[in-house]
Design goal:
Length: 343
């Protein structure tokens, strides 16, 4: 019997996890289509804390649990909260247990990529649109499949096959900076440091190799692109050691989310996972949920076949996603209350 042809749009963590679990269960005709030209075409973002019960179970289903543990930084579970005016430590959660150890996104992605059969990922061939069982690529060519899986993120090109929904701006802006400064590393600790005051937030995260990524967070116009001076002016009352995180190159990241609830009628031949299905504020849930989706979908297909497997997956995934969207939306509102936009 010929193995069904399965197309996965997007070589992110969700798409790669799905491909890996499918291949472990004997599905040989799985292809991941990725518009980027190579695995190293761009940096892969900061750290990810894989949660017990979701992300960790997905990496276990992928047969890569021991390899992941060897790379994970359990000390990265440390949480520090400091006073914005004095930079003094006011709350501290030491790195205990193994509920959510950290790993660099790039390391986790490479682990998944290296586990796939050679040629699984088609680099430089992105999906431009999809219909049930059919993909139109960005170069204009088309191909048919038994199943098309949209794992292509926030601005998914596959989503339109099942839903007209599009991401909406949340009103919240992240401004990212990167550092290697010893003093800032000391203030951050081994994991994550947070400070907040009057609708402004700052947090910093230690990545592998003692690199730091910091994020200023505030309500702002969607197209606001502050200079260093403007950003520092917003944080003028904060301690100089915290304001030092706001120097250097600024990377502006307006936050988007899909409407809640985001559901669709089951459509044979196509489905979604991860941000394509349930884009939500980045509060530590998204990557875990994408990998959980991916493993659940692959396992359901392995058990029930494509048609009934996708239906079974969606019956579990959609309610779970709605709950996560509601919780992260509430969390973002708690972090950055609705007040007049600052800029």
């Amino acid at each position: 019997m010929t193995s069904p042809r399965i197309a996965i749009a997007g070589a992110g963590l969700g798409g790669l996890t799905c491909a890996r679990v499918l291949q472990l269960h004997g599905f040989e005709n799985v292809t991941v289509f990725e518009r980027e030209s190579s695995p190293d075409a761009r940096q892969q973002g900061g750290i990810i804390d894989l949660h017990a019960g979701s992300g960790q179970e997905a990496i276990r289903a992928a047969g890569l649990f021991d390899e992941w543990r060897a790379l994970a930084r359990f000390e990265g579970q440390e949480q520090r909260k400091v006073d914005p005016a004095t930079a003094e430590l006011i709350e501290h959660e030491p790195p205990e247990g193994d509920f959510r150890p950290e790993i660099d996104r790039g390391q986790l992605r490479k682990l998944l990529l290296d586990s796939l059969a050679p040629g699984t990922v088609r680099w430089g061939l992105g999906v431009g649109a999809a219909r049930p069982g059919e993909v139109t690529f960005l170069d204009g060519s088309t191909a048919t499949f038994d199943l098309v899986i949209g794992a292509d993120g926030a601005w998914s090109r596959v989503r339109g096959a099942v839903s007209p929904a599009t991401p909406q701006y949340t009103g919240v802006m992240f401004v990212e900076t990167r550092h290697d400064d010893e003093q800032l590393l000391g203030l951050t600790g081994q994991g994550t440091m947070v400070a907040d005051d009057d609708g402004l937030m700052l947090w910093a995260q230690r990545n592998s190799g003692n690199h730091l990524r910091a994020y200023a967070c505030m309500r702002a116009d969607e197209d606001w692109r502050p200079s260093n001076a403007e950003l520092l002016e917003l944080y003028a009352d904060w301690h100089p050691s915290l304001r030092a995180f706001l120097t250097g190159e600024l990377i502006h990241r307006p936050l988007y989310a899909l409407p809640v609830p985001h559901t669709w009628e089951h459509t044979p031949g196509v489905t979604l996972l991860g941000d394509a299905a349930h884009l939500m504020p980045p509060l530590g849930v998204g990557a875990n949920l994408a990998m959980e989706d991916a493993a659940d979908l692959a396992l359901a297909i392995a058990e029930h076949g494509i048609r009934e497997g996708v239906r079974a997956y969606e019956s579990v995934m959609l309610p779970r996603a709605i709950d996560a969207q509601e919780r992260t939306n509430a969390g973002l509102l708690d972090m950055v209350p609705e007040r007049p936009i600052r800029v």
